[in-house]
Amino acid sequence: MLCPLLFLSAFIVLAGAQQQTVTQPSVVDISSCPITYYGQKYGKLYVNFTRRDIMMCFDKFYDPRNEGDCIMGSSPDKRRAYFNIVQANSVLERWVKIKTQTIQNSLRCSVQITMQIGSSSISLHLFNFGTEAAMFLEADGIGLVAFYTRVSDVLINKVEVNNIVYKSQNDTIDISGCRHSDTVYKPGTVVNSDPQICSSVTCSETATLQTSGCGPLEHCQGNGICVLASTCTVTGPTVIDVQGHMNSIQDHCAYSLFSTPSLPDFLVLGNFRDRRRKDVSFLDSVTLRVDGHDIHLEQGGRVQLDDSTLTLSSSSQLVHGVQLSKDQTGVTAELTNLKISVFFDGDTAQIVLKGPAGSSVEGLCGNSSSSLSDLRLSEYSSTSCEMQYSETADSTIDCNSVTERCNLLKEAPFSSCNTDIDPEPYITACTDTLCKYPAVDGLNCQFLKAYARACSQYNHTLDGWTSKTGCSSEAFCQDRTCSDHEFCGEKMVSGDTRCFCRAIFASKYQANNSLGDATVCKENSASLTLVGCLLEDKDINYSALQLNDPTCRGRVDKLTHMVTFSFNSSKRCGTVVTTNNSYIIYKNTIRSQNYSSDVITRKDQVQIDFSCVYSQPNINTATFRIRDWSVAQCITSGAWNYTLTIKAYTDAGRTQLVEWNSELQLNEKIWMVLKTDGLDGSMVSVVTDSCWATDKASPTSSPRHDLIINGCANPADPTVQVEENGLATSAYFSFNMFRFTGGSSDIFLHCQLHLCPKQGNNCIPTCNTPARVRRSASLAYEPEAPAFISVSWTY
C-alpha cells in the first residue's frame, strides 16, 4: 500500500503558482482552484490564528459570534502555514474516489496546506471536483490532530454541520453538498416537503441542486399542485401589479390592465378620469372586453353590457362566459374558464388570478416592459385625454398626518398580512395621492380597504380593521348613478353623497362665471340648458326655477342631469319680442319662484336672462307670369326660411285658378294670392311692399305698370284693390287685366315683400284709400340661425 505522505509528495504544483506563507491574518487567493464547500463555491480563504487553533474560513474572517463556513484545526508551531495550488493527477483522482466512495466528477485541482504541529508534519488537501469537493488530512508524527468543518450552525440533512467532526491522522471525507433556503443537503438527498407548500429539493449524486415548487405568481393549492394566486390592485391613479411594482397614471386615458395570450379575446381595461382636481387622475370605470362585447363596471355599482344596463344581485348571472354578481361591497366579474376574477367597488379594482401555473400576465398588471403609450387604448379614450394639468397645491392638506394615517398598514391588524403582501406600494400610493388631493369622498379609507381586500385572498381576515380605522367595507356611493361629466362624492357638511362636476368639465363654465351652455335658437324654438351639478354647487334647486310664465319649468335629462328651459311658437312662456335698429330680440328669463327684488333676502335668488337676436328680414322680390298657374319659391330672409307661393284666380272666392289655356279678357278681374309656408304667424306677418307688371321676365325691363306702391294700391289704377296686406302670413289683392300697347301678350308680375315682427309693430300699411275688408289668419315665425346670441346671468 502506498504511503500517503510519499504519494502526495508526488503532486505537481500548478505552473505559475507560487507558495504563499501565512503567519498573520491573511486572505489567500484560491480563485485558480475554487472549492465548492457543501454546495457553495469559494475563491478565497480567510486565514487567522487563535491561541489554540488555525481558522480557515471561506466567506470572512472567523468570528465566534457568527462562525461562517470554516475549517478549524490545531494551531501550527510559530503560527505558520504554507498554501499551494496543486495540479490534477489521474492517479490521485482514482485514489480519492476509492477513499470517499462517493465522488463521481473528475478532479480538476487541489489546494495544499502544510504546517508543523509539534513533532507532526501536517498536510491538509482540498480537492476540486467541480460541483463536488473532498478533504484529505495526513500527519507523520505522534499524537492526534483534529480538524473540524463548520457551516454556520446550519443543519445538513438533520445533522448539524458543526457537529460533523473529522478526527483522523490519515483519512479523506466528502465535503460536497447542496444549499437551498439556508439548509445544506448531502449528495443523493431527495426531500419532498409537505404538499401544503408544494416544494421539493433534490441534491444529486454529483451535488447538483434541483428544486421544484410554486412560481412567484403561484401558490400551493394544498394538494401538492401549484396554481396562480396573484393580485393586481388599481386604486386612485396607482396600479400595483402582480409583482408588487407601482405605476402611476398622470393623464385621463384608458389603459390595458390585464390580458393573457391563453385567452386572446379577453381584455380588462381601466378608464382614468379627473374628479375635484384636474391634476390628479382616478380609476373611474373598468371594462371587460369579451368576445367582441364590452362589459362596463362603473361607479355606483352600475354594470352595462355594450349600451344596455344590467340588473345584478348577489346571485351570479352568466353574461358571455362571465359570472357577474353584486353585493354591498361592489361588483365581481369572474371568468371561470381561466379562473380570473375582477372586483370593482367604484374606486378600486382588484384583478385576482387563480388560473393554472404557467399563465402569463400582460398589461399594466403584468410585469410588463411596455411603455404607457403602448398600453394606452385610444378607442376607449377621449381625443384630448393625454393632456396633463397643473394646479395650485392645497394648503389645507397636512402631509404628516396623511403619512401617519397611511402607515397604519404596518400596524396590527394589517401587519399580520405584511409577509404575504408588501404594504409599501399601498402606503406609497396612499401618501402620494392624499398629500395632493383632499381626503374626501371615502379616499381616507380607500387605500386601507384595498389592502385589506388584497389580504383576504390569502385568508387574512384582519379582524377589527374597520373599527380601528373608522372605515366601512361597503362600497362608497353604491347605487348612485352619475353622468359621464360627473362623479359621485360626499357633501362637505352633511356627509351625504351627490353627483359633482368633474374639474375639467366645470372649468369651461367657471371661466365665464356661467351655469350652462349658450342659448340655442332653432326654426321655431329657443332653449337654454343649465348644468345640474353646477346648480347643486350653488345650492340651487332646479325644480324651483321657472320662465316668465310660471307654468314653464325646466326639464331634467335623467342620464346627463342637464336642465333645459325652452319656449316655442305654441308655448311662448312669456317671451318678450323687441326690436333694436336692424335686430329683433326674443327674450325670456329663468328665475326663482317668488323672486324678490327687495334689498335683502334670506333665500337663494336666481335670475338668468337669455335671448336670441336676429337681423331684420330683408326685402325680397318674386316674379310670376299670369298664365303659369302658380309659382313656388323658397326664400331666405335674414334668419327666416320659408316658401312663397303666388297664384292667380278668376273668381273672388279664389277657387278657379288661371291656367295656361284660360281665355282671359281685357278688363277681366284677376285675384292674386301671395301665400307663405313655414312662418309663425304669431310672431311675423308678410308685407307686400310693391307689385308691378312688365312684358318681360326681368323686373327691371320696360315698359312697367305699378299695381302696389308702398304697400297700397296704385292710385293711378282704380282697378287695383289690396284686400289683405301685413295682417298675416298671406297677402291678397286684385286688378283688372290689361296688356301693354304694341308689346307681348305675356304679362309678368313682380312683387317685393318683407317680413315684419308683429310684437311692438303695426305691420299693416297705412293707405289713403278706403279701408278694405280683411280676413284674419294664423301667425307663425321661423327663426333658423341667429345673427348673434346674448345671454346674461344674475343670481
Automatic annotation (TrEMBL):
InterPro entries for this protein: Snake_toxin-like_sf (IPR045860), VWF/SSPO/ZAN-like_Cys-rich_dom (IPR014853), VWF_type-D (IPR001846), ZP-C (IPR055355), ZP-C_dom (IPR042235), ZP_dom (IPR001507)
Residues covered by the VWFD domain: 230-407
Ranges where the ZP domain occurs: 520-774
Keyword S-adenosyl-L-methionine carried by entry: no
Pfam family, one: C8
Keyword match rRNA processing: no
Signal peptide: 1-17
Official protein name in the record: Sperm plasma glycoprotein 120
Organism this protein belongs to: Haplochromis burtoni (Burton's mouthbrooder)
Lineage: Eukaryota, Metazoa, Chordata, Craniata, Vertebrata
Name of the encoding gene: SPP120
